[in-house]
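Lay summary. Proteins are chains of building blocks that fold into shapes, and those shapes determine what they do. In this project we predict the shape from the chain. Here is one chain we studied, written as its sequence of building blocks.
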Amino acid sequence: MTRATRENLETLHAALHEKSGQEVTLAWLAERSGYAEKTLQTYVTKNMLAPHVLRSSKTTCHVLPNLSLSIGELRRCLSQRANRYTWEHLGVTELVSSLLDRSRTNAGLALELINRPEMANRLDAFVLLFVTAWEQLLKADLEHREQGSIFTGATSPMGRQITIGLPTALERAFPSRTEPVRRNIEVLKDLRDGAAHLLVPEVTGIASRYFQASILNYIKHFQGLAEEPPFRFEGTGLLTLGVAYESPHLELLRVRHGQTASEVKALIEKLEADAQAAGNQQFAVSIEYQLVLDKKAGPNAIRLVNADDGTPAAVVKVPRDPKAVCPYSTKEVATLLAQRTGDASWNQNHVAAVAEYLGVKLSDNEYHYGYRAGANVLHTYSDSFVNKLCERLKSEPDLVKNAYAARRKPR
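And here is the predicted shape, written in a compact code that computers can read:
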């Protein structure tokens, strides 16, 4: 494509977006774009721009409202010959076109599967497909820059040419090891290769931050090469991203995953720490937000505004991590009580009975928090609960005996 043709294409693209949802004359489009009016008339008459631009009369046309036509799509529409393969209009080889097609398909499948919460293995499916999509996109880009550059020169026992691996493709595409996009892809690759057995549902909360960043990075890089986005976005999202999530408690992970619980917890904490340290949206999308009371609302914050026309609001306590407030298991509380009171007979059953007797297990509160694990509930307690029991024992020495007696009373 010549420079003049490229400029005409860009000005026509801008003119169509300017007149989105309106009737426009072909003469006006010709004047703005540099195309001949007869040429535009041919395009419209032959429906080469449909469904984005439709003929209204011999001299006018209607531009679709909320036009989403990209430069790449416009170029494809105006091609005077039927392309033999999808991306031929870009001047790329059939191999590059094939890699782009397969990359887009794999990325679309990854998005479809990650957005199906009923699938127990959706994390596995996403990293497998999306890492493959990235590898194909990077190889397409490298092959477009220099034909034959993705081949190693070796041949497999089956007689096929061997291409470079993802690590080599990443190094060539992003030479800097600190490049956030490269680091993000490397995290996904590590999850695929080395942590596949740890991709349990509890990892979803933190992993989705990396996934969302990778999706946005992918779209940007795909569009940079193909001149159009890989997906249609009319009224649809990309990934169900939690605004906030609760890092799972180790005791809950032990109930659900047994001996791998410690590994799962270590993976979650590593992902959390790396995301926090990087502080880069291309590495892991941030989900931090703030809720403040201010006289003047500003950007990047959810604000309660002090104004006459505002909606009445209640004062809300700052939320705290239940794990930090109630860190002790029933067994750990029994050990603490034995140390504090000098009574070695304290055990888990005593603690459970007293907690029921004092009514702290009826809800989540400053003394107690219950982690739901299917039909089971794991109970954890706070320092305030231990202090409460120690004080109560001073006025009620037979606290444990009374708690068991209360259990035996008919309701």
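What the prediction tells us: The domain at 3-80 is CATH 1.10.10 (Arc Repressor Mutant, subunit A).
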